[in-house]
Specification:
- By secondary structure, the protein is an alpha/beta fold.
- The protein has helices at residues 11-37, 55-71, 86-93, 108-111, 154-163, 177-189, 201-209, 224-228, 276-289, 293-301, 311-332; strands spanning 44-48, 75-79, 101-106, 130-145, 167-171, 193-197, 215-219, 233-237, 263-271, 305-306.
- Strand 5 (167-171), helix 6 and strand 6 (193-197) form a beta-alpha-beta unit.
């Protein structure tokens, strides 16, 4: 006589369970897909890896204000300074890869790994752990002086520096484009200058206004109001050509100091595993935002030029700067102070 296991189920019951499971799966898959595709479903956080008040922070707030209504969700700026932008980069890299946590950073992030100790800022690999979204803006770098230096042009500043060996110059931090500009300036002029790094553009400007440093390399974003007020004297821009934002100020090369061409771009990044569709949506919306006349005007008013384009454009910027500044770091022996 054939025995039936106590664990076996009647055929009709088994078919019923399979049917129920299939129905649940059929219902659940669209819900899961919908949940994954639902961007944005909550607040978007735009992490800026420098203190408030500098160019990156201003760009994030100006862009974020108009990005919010386009996304239908609040856009909040969260400042997380430290380790030459790597603290903020690490935070975003570890965030859920759903587009709700983004990074807006200058190219300092790409440069810092060449000058800071391995593992700085949490050990983030900015080329593998983050996905490029868009480069919304750029800002020219400018050498400014505290009026107490008594120099209204680059020639006068050079003379003052030669009379004061070890004269300190400030930058937005180790590994920043401003740091590199300062060291390239030293190499070209053979001046004895001492680098004083600060934790971002805003603190470096505050130090310069207070006279802690007589010379400062700074991104024009954030410095414009102080230049217009006569509290900082612009001496030279570090571009191949004069900037439209500061047309009256000659380049360093025009004034007899070649080899000091450095610029700063701002990039928006997402965690590496963020879906391509989400990155495309954010890229599209920010491209539209920076086309708005009021956004362009606000950015230009604080010394920031609109850029934009595809994620591949930003990726190209990253690769070019990684190679260039890696070479310069070795040539100039730039390391963490």
């Amino acid at each position: 006589m054939k025995q039936t296991s106590n664990h076996s189920l009647p055929r009709r019951s088994t078919l019923g369970l399979l049917a129920a499971s299939g129905l649940a799966l059929a219902v659940g898959l669209p819900q899961l897909a919908s949940a994954q595709a639902a961007f944005p479903s909550r607040q978007v956080t735009l992490v800026v890896p420098f203190p408030a008040g500098g160019g990156p922070d201003l760009a994030a707030r100006i862009i974020g204000e108009k990005l919010a209504p386009r996304l239908g969700q609040p856009v909040v700026v969260d400042n997380k300074p430290g380790a030459g932008a790597l603290v903020g980069a690490s935070f975003v890299a570890k965030a859920p890869a759903d587009g709700h946590t983004l990074l807006l950073t200058p190219n300092t992030m790409v440069i810092s790994p060449h000058v800071l100790p391995p593992g700085a800022g949490g050990g983030v690999d900015v080329h593998k752990d983050l996905a490029p979204v868009i480069a919304p803006a750029t800002t020219p770098l400018v050498l400014v002086a505290n009026p107490s230096l008594g120099a209204n042009n680059l020639k006068a500043a050079l003379e003052a520096a030669r009379k004061s060996p070890g004269l300190p110059y400030g930058s937005a931090g180790n590994g920043s484009p401003m740091h590199f500009a300062g060291e390239m300036f030293k190499r070209s002029t053979k001046l004895d200058l001492m680098h004083v790094p600060y934790k971002g553009v805003a603190p470096s400007i505050t130090a310069s206004l207070a006279g802690e440093v007589k010379l400062l390399y700074v991104g024009l974003g954030g410095a414009v109001p102080h230049i217009k007020a006569g509290k900082l004297v612009p001496l030279a821009v570090t571009e191949a050509r004069r900037s439209e934002l500061l047309p009256e100020v000659p380049t360093a090369t025009e004034q007899g100091v070649p080899g000091v061409e450095v610029n700063a771009w701002y990039g928006v990044f997402a965690p590496a595993a963020t879906p391509a569709a989400t990155i495309a949506r954010i890229n599209r919306e920010i491209n539209e935002v920076i086309k708005m006349p009021e956004v362009r005007d606000k950015l230009m008013a604080v010394g920031i030029e609109v850029a934009g384009g595809s994620p591949q454009v930003l990726e190209g910027f990253m690769k070019a700067d990684n190679q260039r500044y890696g070479t310069l770091a070795r040539e100039l022996n730039i390391k963490a102070d």
